[in-house]
Amino acid sequence: MSSKLPQTTLSLKQFLLRQEVLKLYREIFRTLRQIPDESTRSELKVWARADFRNNKHHTDESAIRSMLYYGRKSLTDLKKSLALSKS
Questions:
Q1: Which of 17, 71, 77, 87, CA to CA, is 20 to 30 A from 59?
Q2: CA-CA distance, 12 to 14, in Å (whole number)?
Q3: Is 75 helix (H, G, I), strand (E, B) or coil?
Q4: Phi, psi of 33, deg, nearest 5
């Protein structure tokens, strides 16, 4: 019988960092739903998925935190742009 648990167990710090990454990922996709232009929305979804997939191999905590900071900043900029386009 094979176990469904991952081969390596995450430390508490790694687990919490992973939760932050997943939260950012979900928030990005919720925000992308607000983009009115279908092709732009689709392009940004493909880009966001690829960006997360291309960086999932990182294990260095400071590198991940740096990427989270950049991701949150980009999300904030996107939200501001969407708010301006609605006004």
A1: 77
A2: 5
A3: helix
A4: -60, -25
Residue with token string 């992973």:
18
Whole-number Cα distances in Å, 11 to 5, 16, 57, 66: 14, 9, 16, 19
The greatest distance separating any two alpha carbons of the chain, rounded to the nearest whole angstrom, comes to 58
Query: How far apart (Å, rounded) are the C-alpha atoms in residues 5 and 64?
Result: 23
- Interhelix angle 61-86/12-32, rounded to 10 degrees, is 20
Contact 64, 16 (CB under 8 A): no
Per-residue pLDDT tens digits of the chain, which is 87 residues long: 555 665 678 889 999 999 999 999 999 999 999 999 999 999 999 999 999 999 999 999 999 999 999 999 999 999 999 999 887
- Say how many C-beta atoms besides its own lie within 10 A of residue 82's C-beta: 14
Q: In one letter, which amino acid is 43?
A: E
